[in-house]
Each structure stands twice: as structure tokens, then as C-alpha cells.
Amino acid sequence: MSKKPVSLPPEIRPGQSLELLKELHILTRDGKLNQDSRRKLKQVYHLAQFIEPLLNDLETLVDHGAGKSYLGFILYDLFLKSRPTGTVIGIEHRAQLVEKSQELASRLGFPRMHFLACTVEESLHSAALPARVDVVTALHACDTATDDAIRFALQRQAHHIVLVPCCQAEVAATLRAGKAAALAQTPLAELWRHPIHTRELGSHLTNVLRCLLLEAHGYAVTVTELVGWEHSMKNELIIASRRSDKPRQNARQRAEAILREFKLEALTARFIY
User: Fold this and answer.
1) Where in the chain is the domain with CATH 3.40.50.150?
2) How many CB atoms lie within 10 A of CB 95?
3) 162 - beta bridge partners?
4) 45, 128, 161, 267: most buried by Cβ count inside 10 Å?
5) Domain 13-166 has CATH 3.40.50.150
């Protein structure tokens, strides 16, 4: 008696590599999706909608702080494997993850996926990477890793930058350290008087300052929601596209004013360069 064909979940798109989805633990070995993997897949699909228009005539996409290269593999599988050109490079400082990703790409027959084990500083100057890249992505890069991706993208003159920031504690910690003095000087300090507000305001200010930095370098920036709040609390999507070498004139001045207003001058080097 012949076996009945396996019925795949409706979320799986035609032509997707089932082996890849199993390796990424999106599909179970018997071809099922659990609740967590369904959430992750929906999030990546939603992000892919925004990235796909940026892939026209793509030569190089760099996934910065790639981790297990979840995003890079999905983008290659969905959009690039059927094309004759288009390379994905995953940058990750953990050599073990890089080795595993390269082995998986070879096994899947994804010849234009490459992985580089290097630190943030090494990535800025590595001759193994193109002098210019088309797209830089950073998905849920924790703490200052999103800032590292921005610095790399600006240094490599990326045409497009796609960021889904994760937690960033640096601004909140600076607000917290100066809270007592700020409360004595300005009623605005009430915005971060309570710990939960400190964390939320720190996250919001971080992304505002990131957007101003990108605009100061000549990028048009849009900020939107990646998926609904019911799926993730870290769902802010920042897309920056290079419009000209002429920066927005007042972006730098506005960033400087925000740093002064919120007593964050110690972070000037992080957000203004």
C-alpha cells in the first residue's frame, strides 16, 4: 500500500526547501509547525515583503550579526536561489556558527551563500567583503549590535539598510545614571523617573537617534511595524535607502539637541559621526 503524501502546513510556500526549514527548526522532522516556529516564520515572511523590492539587481546582501543566518537562508531560498546572480554573506563572530552555516549552505546547494567569522572591527576593514554592498540587514541584533550593523553599512555605502532592533540597554543605563540630577533640573525627567519608563524611553530614544544618524548620511528613512504586538514586543522595522550623498541638513543638529536635552552627551560618539 502506497504511503499518503505528507500534507505540508499552508504557511510553507511552493518550492521552499523543506530540508532548510527542518534544519532551522521551523519544521519538525515529520513536517509540522509548532506555535513558536509558526510565529517566527510569519515574522520572517512579513519582513521578506519589505526586503524583496530591494533585491532587484542585487549583487550582495550582508546579514550583519547573522547568528545562525536564519534570515539569510530564508531570503536566499525564497528569492535568490532561482536567480543567476545575487550573493548573501553572513557575518558572525562565533566561528562555530559560521562553520555550521557554511556546511548547511553547501549541503543545500546554495553556492552564492558565504559566511565570514570576524569581529565588528574586522568587518569594517575586511578585504573579504566588497567595498560596497547593496543591502545590509540586522534582525534582532541585541544591544549595540544594531549600531554595529549601521556603522558597517555606512562604511560600505550600502544602498539599503534593513533593521529590526532588539534590546539596547546603553541609553537606558545612561538615563538611569543621571536620573537624580535630571529630576532636579527639568520636569522632562518624569518621562524616565520609573524603571519601566526608563527602559521604554531608552529604547525609543535609541531608535530615534539611529534614524537621525542615517538621515545625516543621506538616507531616506521609514519606520513601521514588522508584525502585530501579539507576535513580538520587538517589532520596529527601520528601512533606510540611500538617496544622495547630500545629508539632511538638520539631522545632525537635531540629534545633538536630543542628546543635550536628555543628558546623553556621553553617547555622542555612538550616534553622531
Assistant:
1) 13-166
2) 11
3) 137, 239
4) 161
5) yes
Query: What's the number of CA atoms in the CB half-sphere (13 Å) around residue 5?
Result: 3
**SS3 labels along 29-80:** CCCCCCHHHHHHHHHHHHHHHHHHHHHCCCCEEEEECCCCCHHHHHHHHHHH
| pTM of structure | 0.91
Residue type present at position 53: P
Phi, psi torsion values for 161, nearest 5 degrees? -130, 125
What's residue 229's pLDDT?
A: 45
Q: In Å, what is the CA distance from 231 to each residue of 41, 146, 226, 228?
A: 11, 21, 10, 6
Q: Residues 6 or more apart from 28 whose CB is under 8 A from it?
A: 22, 34
d(CA 140, CA 166): 5
In tens, the pLDDT along 185-220 reads 999 999 999 999 999 999 999 999 999 999 999 999
SS (HEC) of the chain: CCCCCCCCCCCCCCCCCHHHHHHCCCCCCCCCCCHHHHHHHHHHHHHHHHHHHHHCCCCEEEEECCCCCHHHHHHHHHHHCCCCCCEEEEEECCHHHHHHHHHHHHHHCCCCEEEEECCHHHHHHCCCCCCCCCEEEEECCCCCHHHHHHHHHHHCCCCEEEEECCCCCHHHHHHHHCHHHHHHHCHHHHHHCCHHHHHHHHHHHHHHHHHHHHHHCCEEEEEEECCCCCCCCCCEEEEEEECCCCCCCCHHHHHHHHHHHCCCHHHHHHHCC
